[in-house]
User: What shape does this take?
Amino acid sequence: MTLVYFAWVRQKIGVAQETFPAPPGIHTVQDLIDHLQRRGGGYADVFADPSRLRAAVNQEHAPFNTALSPDDEVAFFPPVTGG
Amino acid sequence: MIAHIRIQPEDFDLNDEIEALTEKTTGIGAVASFVGVVRAEDGLTALTLEHYPGMTEKQIAACVEDANTRWPLLGVTIIHRIGTLTPGTRIVLVAVAAPHRGAAFLACEFLMDYLKTRAPFWKREDRETETSWVEPRTSDAEAAARWK
Assistant: This one.
C-alpha cells in the first residue's frame, strides 16, 4: 500500500508519502486509521481525531468504511479548501 | 464538449482563455466566466496552495462531466493556480461556453461550488508572525449541497 499525506497532516507526520506493507487485520480505511494512530508521535496526533480528516482511495474520495486492497494508494488530508 | 483543465503556478489571461475556448467551436451563444482572487485580509502576506497531483485533475474532470449531464455545454476551461500567491492576484478561472446564457451561468456556478468542495487543494495563509491552514467553510458545503 502507498500512503500519501497533505497539508497539516503531511507536516505533522513529517513525510509526504510512504510505502506501507499492510499487516493482517487491516480491511478498511478505519482499520488503517486505528493502526496508524497506535504508531505514536505525529501519527497519534493526526489520527487522534479522525473527524478532522478526509480520505481518498486510489484518488477517489472515500468514506472510512471503504475496503482496502494491498496495492491501493490511500491519502489522508484535511477537508479541501481550494477555489 | 471540450474541457481544458490546467493546474499551474502561472497566472492566466482571461481574454486569451475565452478566445481559446470559443475559436474552434460553432454554436456558442454565451460564455460565462468566474475569476477568483486572493482576498487581501488583515495581515495576510501570501496564500500558498498545495494539491494532490493526479486526483485534482480527475476530480475536476468528474465535476465537468457532471455539469455536462445537467446542461448542454460546448466547452469548459478550468485553471487553478498552485504555489505561493500574493493578495490581489488571480487564483482560479472557470469559463463555460454554451448555446444559451442560462446553461452557461448555472454551470459556471455549479463548477465553482463543486470544485471548492471536491478538488483536493489546500490553502495555507502566511501572515507576518504565523502560518495557518485554512479551515473549510460550512457555507461552501451548503452551496455545493443545493445542486443535489
Remarks:
- The domain at 2-145 of chain B is CATH 3.90.1170.40 (Aldehyde Oxidoreductase; domain 3).
- Chain B touches chain A through 28 residues (CB under 8 Å).
- Chain B has a mean pLDDT of 96.
